[in-house]
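Minutes, project check-in
Item: structure for the 180-residue chain
Input as provided by the requester:
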Amino acid sequence: MPSISHEDMTSRARREAAQWTARLEELTDMIAPRFARQEARVHANAYLRGLLSPVQRKNGWQLAEAVGEPTPTAIQHLLGRAVWDADAVRDDLREYVVEHLGRRDAVLVVDETGFLKKGEHSVGVQRQYTGTAGRIENSQVGVFLAYATDSDRAFIDRELYLPDSWICDPSPLRQGRRAG
């Protein structure tokens, strides 16, 4: 087997990075019309770059740092207050995934993931079983849909699971938080 030189590996890594950058730009151009303001489009691009970065924890501070922002304010504004259509972005992403990864042998994978929580103020939080902990804990549960082939995979949808206590008792919903 022929050996690969350091220069060849570096050159290959640069080509792959350039391809990733080009694909990310293509995707952000595709979803740009879903954002009401230019600033939101810029921050959406930065947010995606942060999610794709090697940062271990993907919270606001680490994502901001990964994309060169001094604070997470811009990312928090994008996710919490900026005007954009998350469902339309999801639809654009699904179209992009099918165009670039579409194969007859692909499968859809549904998975739920628990997010351990200390308080009760996040929507959907209650004591419930979560595989993340392997037992009943105070947690929030997300359900995710992924498109997968032998060589590629991409998340294409998400929903937050709402326990009966959140659906049957309207007071936490009206207050925007769980009653203490």
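Outcome recorded: The chain has a mean pLDDT of 88.
No further action items on this chain.
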